[in-house]
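Human: For the file, kindly provide a plain-text protein record giving the amino acid sequence and the backbone structure tokens, at your earliest convenience.
Assistant:
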Amino acid sequence: MAFRPEAFRYQPESDTYQCPAGKVLSYEGKNRDVGVTQHKYRARAVDCAACEFKEKCCPQNVKGRTVVREEEAPAVVAFRAKMETEEAKQIYRQRGPAAEFPNAWIKAKMGLRQFRLRGLLKVTMEATWACLTYNIQQWIRLR
């Protein structure tokens, strides 16, 4: 059974990880994405090559084991905390009848499962046209 990232202990004072064999994984860099920053840590290749747990930990890896630590943006953390409140859950329950059917209809009937254009302005226009079409069809149905 392979060693999962949970088997490695994070050392915040030195910003490193310690593997189950006691070796140190040093900070290698970070990758930023929307709402999350991924911090990458790597063990030295010589440490992994001589390790007694190599077959369980990283059998095909010749560069040294890596572990990634994710750090969510403060806005994401605040949003998650807000959505855990009972008030937010009540408000979100009301969203279903008002928003979910139009979203499903636009996806199924108009085939808008992904945008055909790139760029925020173009995507906004494509979504606006889809919503306008839906609203006009509902207006015709109700007339």
